[in-house]
């Protein structure tokens, strides 16, 4: 995958080749990774990545140029290589964003939100375990940044994102969500109960008075 590393300034052969087959290879081997990253970002953040849209737009531009009769075989190869670069960027950026935000969420829940565990009568996570997990995720993100522009960057950022997801699942198990939900519902009814009681009493007095 991402076999165009180091080809930015390469001289591409000018012999004719099966351009349509190469376009199919780009779409079938490279696009799915970008699509997965982009959709994951949209689900998590509830918004679309403008950067990813630009990368996909540029990919389509290169694909369309590569199959034109007026484009030489050498130029067609260059444009197809650029497609791989844009699709790699479209995959790396969302995975990086997700990994960073999950890192911050882990820190917020485990470090600053320890009181929530006590509120819902659950044992808070061990600090050293959380710190250890955060260190592993941070290390993976750093490696992904160092490797940007290479095939390894996508895999490293994906792994960092997956590690963040697994850590969050440990920090917020099913019973955590259930108890937090029950506490919130109880608080809502408590807050609304007082004014509703006064309103009901006032209405009852009004009806009795008439």
Concise overview:
The chain has 210 residues and is mostly helical.
Share of residues in helices: over 70%
**Structural class by sheet pairing and helices:** mainly alpha
| Sheet having the most strands | none
How far do the termini sit from each other? 82 Å
Q: What is the average per-residue confidence, as pLDDT, rounded to a whole number?
A: 79
- How many strands in all? 0
- Total helical segments: 7
Number of domains: 2
User: Which spans of ≥5 residues are poorly predicted at pLDDT below 50?
Assistant: 181-186
Percentage beta strand: under 5%
Silhouette: elongated
Order of helices and strands: HHHHHHH
Properties at a glance:
elongated; 7 helices; single chain; mainly alpha
Q: How would you explain this protein's 3D organization?
A:
This protein is mostly helical and 210 residues long. It folds into two domains: 154 residues; 36 residues. Helix 2 packs antiparallel against helix 3, helix 3 runs parallel beside helix 6 and helix 5 runs antiparallel to helix 6. It is elongated and about 70 Å long.
SSE blueprint:
Blueprint: H1 19-45, H2 50-66, H3 73-112, H4 114-119, H5 127-146, H6 151-171, H7 174-209
Helix pairs in contact: 1-3, 2-3, 3-5, 3-6, 5-6
């Amino acid at each position: 995958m991402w076999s165009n590393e180091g080809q930015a300034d390469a001289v591409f052969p000018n012999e004719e080749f099966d351009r349509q087959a190469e376009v199919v290879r780009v779409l079938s081997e490279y696009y799915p990774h970008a699509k997965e990253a982009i959709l994951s970002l949209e689900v998590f953040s509830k918004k679309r990545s403008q950067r990813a849209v630009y990368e996909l737009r540029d990919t389509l531009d290169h694909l369309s140029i590569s199959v034109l009769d007026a484009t030489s075989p050498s130029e067609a190869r260059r444009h197809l290589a650029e497609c791989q670069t844009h699709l790699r960027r479209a995959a790396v950026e969302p995975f990086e964003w997700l990994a960073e935000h999950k890192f911050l969420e882990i820190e917020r829940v485990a470090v600053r939100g320890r009181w929530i565990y006590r509120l819902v009568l659950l044992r808070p996570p061990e600090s050293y375990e959380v710190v250890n997990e955060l260190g592993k995720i941070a290390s993976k993100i750093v490696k992904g940044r160092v490797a940007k522009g290479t095939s390894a960057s996508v895999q490293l950022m994906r792994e960092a994102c997956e590690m963040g997801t697994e850590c969050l699942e440990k920090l917020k198990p099913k019973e955590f969500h259930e108890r937090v939900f029950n506490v919130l519902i109880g608080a809502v009814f408590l807050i609304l109960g007082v004014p509703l009681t006064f309103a009901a009493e006032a209405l009852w007095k009004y009806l009795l008075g008439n």
